[in-house]
Structures are given as C-alpha cells and as structure tokens.
Design goal:
Elements (H helix, E strand, L loop, with lengths): L1 E3 L2 E7 L9 E10 L8 E8 L2 E8 L2
Antiparallel strand pairs: 1-2, 2-3, 3-4, 4-5
Length: 60
C-alpha cells in the first residue's frame, strides 16, 4: 500500500529477489482510498539497495 496526502493506493504483485539486484516486477493497482477509491491500473516496481522506484499508471 502506498500512502499519499490524498489517500492510499493498493498494489498486488510478486517479485523474485534472488541473486544480485536490482530487482523488478509488475503489480496491479487493485484499489485505494480517498482520491484513489476504486483505482485500477498497473505499476512497475524496481528495488535497488536502499531505494524503491515505482511508476504507477492509473486507468481512466
């Protein structure tokens, strides 16, 4: 779950984290709260050492 000042976004997905990073994967946006209630879309996730990068695309 990602929290913002306007609500939260819920993601669902899995990622293998074997071997040296960075690690990446895709996740589905499955809902949220506040401004993001009933949100749908997809997210691209990259985890490398001490940071995580997310690119979230919400459907209209």
């Amino acid at each position: 779950m990602l929290r913002t000042d306007h609500g939260s976004i819920t993601l669902s997905g899995s990622m293998d984290m074997f071997g040296p990073g960075p690690y990446g994967g895709d996740a589905a946006v499955t809902g949220g709260t506040g401004t993001y209630a009933e949100a749908e879309g997809q997210a691209e996730v990259v985890i490398d050492d001490d940071y995580a990068k997310l690119r979230i695309s919400l459907d209209d």
